[in-house]
Amino acid sequence: MAQGITFRLADSVPDGLTARWREEIRLSQEWQSEDARHQELHRRVAHCEDAGWGECHLRRPEIAALVCGALLRFDGERYLLREWCVMPNHVHVLLIQCEGFPLAEIVKSWKTYTARRANDILGRRGPFWMRDYYDRIIRNQRHQDQAAAYIRNNPVKAGLCERPQDWPWSSAGWAKRESSAE
Fold it and tell me: 2-181 — its CATH code?
């Protein structure tokens, strides 16, 4: 079963904003179902991410490459990567878990390793990643295709490049890099 995952830098959404949005959405009559409320919260957070809030440490090539390497490290062993993209302040991944490797452990390993190394590179201490992450079970092939397109096009939507394959810190950009190396 495929999963869509998003995790973000600790400073990518201002303190208290997500909690305020949750409460605002909970009290509003505009979103009738829990799923609609969840989608609205996700939409608001995604807008913050694409606006590039925070220090955007993932914009630094050595840190973006570190995260890409961590994602690729266990591809084919613990999970099968379908699509991924490292944005300036967050990361999107579409994967299929391999049996015996819980999603929480996969994400924890990425975040623990990259936080330690990134903090060393930056000469800083403290939280690098936001504690939580967002995950969504992919329901069917249509949903998987939509999730993949969203991830692939996220750098274009955020104004970081003109075409998905122009963003070097993504599966689209990585595929371009590998095909030009051959």
Answer: 3.30.70.1290
